[in-house]
Amino acid sequence: MKAVLCTKYGPPEVLQVRQVEKPVPKDNEVLIKIFATSVTASDCIIRGFKLPAAMWIPARLALGLTKPRKPILGLVLSGEVEKAGDDIKQFQKGDRVFAHTFMRFGAYAEYICIPESSAIALMPSRISFEEAASLPIAALTAFNGLRRCNVTKGKTVLINGGTGGVGHFAIQIARAKGAHVTATCSQSNAELARKLGANETIGYSKEEVAKSGMKFDAILDAYGKMDLGDACRLLKRGGIYATTQIKPLLFLSSLLVQLVYSKKLTSSNMRSRPEDMEEMEKLFIDRKLYPVIEHYFTLEHSAEAFELAEFGKPRGKIIIRP
Predict the structure, then answer these.
(1) Residue 49: what pLDDT?
(2) What is the pLDDT of residues 169-212, one digit of tens each?
(3) Are 43 and 99 contacting, i.e. CB atoms less than 8 angstroms apart?
(4) 3-state secondary structure string, the chain?
(5) pTM for the full model?
(6) How confident is the model at residue 284 (pLDDT cuts 50, 70, 90)?
(7) Domains of the chain, with CATH numbers?
(8) Is the pLDDT of residue 50 over 70?
């Protein structure tokens, strides 16, 4: 089968398409023929090893010293069950499914084996493979970030990076919860942000955000690069800031900020529980949540997909199809 291999850490050009052996499912696994996957920020970070210096040593030990220990990256996918192991009860041949692989990776390929205990779910009937492949990590990260920010009806929330992969889901979810949503984005993306549900938009530069003079109950930093000092100034007393990026000193900073200013800093890591998947599917079926997909690539052009994801400031999600 074809697969995209990351043979060493580096820029997108290190990705290579090669023929590898097709996996064979164990008794507790399902073999899935992949129809679509999407580029995630985690895949970009691991491929380029773009991590804070404080995490280099533990990350190298966990991921691999000079190259990823699992060379086929890819964390999310949609496809069709081709074969189910003998112990599999929930899925059978022909089922349309979508899933994320946690740290098993392997989605940038034509086939993958995943244990039934992983986050695999049957696809709703009205969803395409491309739409399904865009949901698991980005939408679940947005859900958890807004949950940790305690975003509920009537709350004011700022989504930093409102038209990106996580941000465009966060706008829709926050609006569905009844929050008043402000999104940062470029002027060219302001119309899209409002279409997604933002009540207001402001430019994403530090100066434009500061000039707005607005205060928020919650900030979800979907872009992940907001200055923590700016975040504290934008939060109301008792407000909560959550970031999608890894910040090694965030816990210590949060203790100080909470003690002095009664504000909270936290992270927006992905959480996946059955109730999370169900809530995500319900919003999709009710047409309150949909992915923005403007760019499609094949496995052979995966390096270009990564280049766009990292440096092109794309709107919504980038899909790769075998």
Answers:
(1) 84
(2) 999 999 999 999 999 999 999 999 999 999 999 988 878 877 77
(3) no
(4) CEEEEECCCCCHHHEEEEECCCCCCCCCEEEEEEEEEECCHHHHHHHHCCCCHHHHHHHHHHHCCCCCCCCECCCEEEEEEEEECCCCCCCCCCCEEEEECHHHCCCCECEEEEECCCEEEECCCCCCHHHHHHCHHHHHHHHHHHHHCCCCCCCEEEEECCCCCCHHHHHHHHHHCCCEEEEECCHHHHHHHHHHCCCEEECCCHHHHHHCCCCEEEEEECCCCCCHHHHHHHEEEEEEEEECCCCCCHHHHHHHHHHHHCCEEEECCCCCCHHHHHHHHHHHHCCCCCCCEEEEEEHHHHHHHHHHHHHCCCCCEEEEEC
(5) 0.89
(6) confident
(7) 2-135+291-321 (3.90.180.10), 137-267 (3.40.50.720)
(8) yes
Higher pLDDT, 258 or 292: 292
For the purposes of burial, counting CB atoms within 10 Å of the CB of 153, is it exposed (0-12), middle (13-18) or buried (19 or more)? Answer: exposed
Computed from CA positions of residues 84, 77, 269, 162, in that sequence, does the dihedral angle turn out positive or negative? negative
The pLDDT score that the predictor gives to residue 54 is: 62
Contact of 209 with 233, CB cutoff 8 Å: no
- Joined together, the tokens standing for residue 251 give 């816990």
Measured distance CA(11)–CA(168) in Å, rounded: 26
